[in-house]
């Protein structure tokens, strides 16, 4: 019969029983003991806390119990069993504490009433203190674990979004379609050497994307080599309309940046700006104060391309997740500028 009852109903019944027991122990029993022995509950709270060795050992045992309980029975599973274990532990440890606190008081025949009264008040005090310690420790641990799980889920979601964005770039139909059209034009013109070079660069670009999809960081040298191949492909399309200036000292080639970060910025520049021989688009890549800067002159297309900003957001999230650093984005009437931190991990 009890097995057919839902977990939620069991938990409600168990909590009701615990609340009823607490009411009987801490209100009805206290009143009865107070009237019978004329003792004050607060005096025994002070007595238990003032026994520093016993209080310290009980405190550490309470923390250890909560930690072990959370490892063996995770939050949200077997709530009734968890509640019963907590209640059972609190009662046992409180009985032990009450006995230790009163260990030096041997009940003589004519003072048994006083002794048992003090034992019961000590037990109530120990129950109160241990219950508070266990509840606070359990709630604190639950909050920490929940927060860590939430952060892990957020990071997992960010990683999934970033990998999905990378996959879309890898399979970007527009880039591949334009590249194949350019290759077709070169082949029809009979420029076999130029076509062969174009195919090798296109293959190298996709090889890099596929090989780095699981890497959080790449060397600056690897990323620059990839960007140069990517820019060479773009120049086949835009001819004299695109100018790429890369000025970075080779001593920085072993430092780290996020993969595809520079490529996204170059792609965005060509996507949102006019690129023509009459109005060349210049993209400059250089280092300033341990940041790699990508800046282009601003000449927006007459027909604006829809932008979600997903690429920049993903780059920013990667730097936050890996190094807790922000990227810098500056836009004015003349230029668009993005600064990416250079990492030495």
UniProtKB/TrEMBL annotation:
The chain crosses the membrane at residues 12-32, 52-70, 82-101, 121-143. It holds the Pfam family His_kinase. One of its GO terms (cellular component) is membrane. InterPro entries: Bact_2-comp_sensor_kinase, Sig_transdc_His_kin_internal. Residues 163-240 form the Signal transduction histidine kinase internal region domain. PANTHER family: SENSOR HISTIDINE KINASE YPDA. This is Putative two-component system sensor protein histidine kinase. It comes from Mucinivorans hirudinis.
């Amino acid at each position: 019969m009890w097995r057919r009852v839902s977990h939620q109903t069991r938990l409600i019944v168990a909590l009701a029983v615990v609340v009823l027991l607490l009411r009987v122990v801490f209100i009805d029993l206290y009143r009865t003991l107070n009237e019978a022995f004329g003792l004050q509950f607060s005096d025994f709270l002070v007595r238990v806390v003032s026994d520093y060795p016993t209080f310290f050992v009980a405190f550490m045992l309470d923390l250890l119990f909560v930690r072990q309980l959370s490892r063996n029975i995770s939050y949200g599973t077997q709530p009734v069993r968890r509640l019963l274990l907590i209640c059972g532990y609190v009662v046992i440890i409180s009985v032990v504490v009450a006995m230790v606190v009163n260990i030096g008081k041997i009940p003589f025949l004519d003072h048994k009433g006083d002794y048992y009264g003090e034992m019961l008040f000590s037990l109530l005090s120990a129950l109160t203190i241990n219950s508070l310690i266990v509840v606070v420790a359990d709630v604190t641990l639950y909050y920490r674990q929940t927060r860590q799980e939430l952060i892990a889920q957020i990071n997992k979601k960010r990683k999934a979004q970033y990998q999905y964005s990378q996959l879309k770039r890898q399979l970007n139909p527009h880039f591949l379609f334009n590249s194949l059209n350019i290759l077709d034009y070169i082949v029809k013109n009979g420029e076999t050497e130029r076509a062969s070079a174009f195919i090798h660069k296109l293959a190298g670009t996709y090889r890099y994307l596929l090989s780095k999809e699981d890497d959080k960081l790449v060397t600056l040298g690897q990323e620059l080599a990839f960007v140069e191949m990517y820019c060479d492909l773009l120049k086949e399309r835009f001819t004299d309309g695109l100018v790429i200036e890369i000025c970075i000292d080779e001593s920085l080639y072993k430092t780290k940046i996020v993969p595809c970060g520079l490529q996204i910025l170059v792609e965005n520049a060509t996507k949102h700006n006019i690129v023509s021989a009459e109005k060349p688009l210049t993209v400059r890549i250089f280092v300033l104060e341990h940041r790699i800067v990508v800046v282009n002159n601003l000449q927006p297309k007459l027909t604006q391309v829809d932008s979600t900003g997903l690429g920049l957001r993903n780059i920013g999230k990667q730097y936050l997740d890996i190094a807790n650093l922000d990227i810098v984005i500056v836009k004015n009437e003349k230029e668009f500028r993005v600064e990416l931190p250079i990492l030495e991990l």
